[in-house]
What we know:
This protein has helices at 14-25, 51-62, 78-86, 103-106, 129-135, 170-194, 222-230, 234-245, and strands spanning 7-10, 32-34, 39-41, 46-48, 70-71, 91-94, 113-117, 125-126, 140-147, 157-164, 209-210, 253-259, 262-277, 283-290, 296-297. Mean pLDDT is 92; it is low at 301-307. The chain is of the alpha/beta class. Strand 12 (253-259) and strand 13 (262-277) form a beta hairpin. Helix 1 runs parallel beside helix 2 and helix 1 packs across helix 6 (170-194). It is built from 8 helices and 15 strands. The chain folds into 2 domains: 7-210, Rossmann fold, CATH 3.40.50.170; 216-297, Methionyl-tRNA Fmet Formyltransferase, Chain A, domain 2.
Amino acid sequence: MSTQPRFIFFGTPEFAADVLEKLLNRGIIPTAIVCNPDRPVGRKKVITPPAVKLLIMEHQLQDPKFAIPLLQPETLDDAFIEQLRSFEPELFVIAAYAKLVKQNVLDIPKYGTIGVHPSLLPAYRGAAPMQTTLLDGQDITGVTLFMIDEKMDHGPIMAQETVQIGTMDYIQLAKKLAEIGGELVAKTIPGLVDGTIIPQEQDHTKATFTKKFSTDDAFIDIHDIERAHSEGGEIALVIERKIRALNPEPGTWTMASSIGDLHFGQEKRIKLLEADLSSEKTLTIKKIHVEGKKPLELHHHEQSLDK
């Protein structure tokens, strides 16, 4: 039985924190952790630690002896690379780190770098695999562990596990895939170290790519929403998928002076948070957030926001 290699975990957002939590819960403890610096968040621009750092802080609160060096470099410069080398890592694990890691960093650990990617590679490479999978109306997705090389999500595959999406939204899907990803990393590290797992090259001819979505991509015309509500059909399916895929970021929205039975008196920007498809495939908006108000569950007979 091989002992656990000295490994450094790279990851920043919630997805990475969920992967890391699975590893910690199984007693698979990184030698060090790398995440992005604390950043301003929200309208008030409050400086906030990333999810991975919050997870480590939480563990330290529960157990003051819990100590893993946490690095938050702005850039992966020469000084940082020397710092990485000082830990004498044998393996890197990267899950949603949000920075490009170049070959001079990937060359450091002798067993290479495992990437945790929330799609069934070679499909959905790139920045937004889960959102794009949901928008495309796929019912099956999964997690891939692959050996990272310098090209995007291109390296050979070590392990995959599939998941049925059903009615999951982005947040639910990300949590599910991260947890499976963490379990897969735990199961796969020993096989990589003792040579029983041989990474297999991807079929690059089948590669598909995703892009980061903007606020403009998340706009839904109010007339389309009304049609989807009254007529249903393909437009209702498309809008419902969009609302599941693009919340919380960049956040689906519309401009309207009324929605359902609610009337605002003037046109307002409305965030569309949740929607439902009936058995007849018509769309009902269930939860909205009108600018300047609190988020609101929509019931069919509400007439005014000022109640």
